[in-house]
Amino acid sequence: MAIAKTIEVIASSTQGIEAAVRDGIAKVGQTVENIEGAWVKDTKVVVRDGGIAEWRVTMVVTFIVK
Questions:
Q1: Which residues contact 50 (CB under 8 A, 6 or more apart)?
Q2: What DSSP state is assigned to residue 14?
Q3: How far is CA 63 from CA 15, 31, 34, in A?
Q4: Is residue 4 scored above 90 in pLDDT?
Q5: How many of the other CB atoms lie within 10 Å of CB of 38?
Q6: pLDDT tens, 6-51?
């Protein structure tokens, strides 16, 4: 039997949504083992001076508890 747990994280990047997801997963992976996947719940952009300054994603990360 496996037990899965989820955590919700917010990650950001100045490079784009994919970079925000990649960076967020990498950061979570520094302290959480056995990551199985992630669900991107929400996306947002921060606008400054009429342009996109930052992309943000809210993710639910699933990992297996051993």
A1: none
A2: S
A3: 26, 11, 5
A4: yes
A5: 20
A6: 999 999 999 999 999 999 999 999 999 999 999 999 999 999 999 9
Q: Is the entire prediction scored with pTM above 0.85?
A: yes
The letter for the amino acid at 22 is R
DSSP state of 32: -
Query: Of the candidates 34, 54, 66, 29, which has an alpha carbon nearest to the alpha carbon of residue 9?
Result: 29
Distance, CA of 61 to CA of 18 (rounded, Å): 15
3-class SS of residue 16: coil
Calculate the alpha carbon distances from 6 to 3, 46, 48, 55, 59 in Å: 10, 26, 33, 23, 10
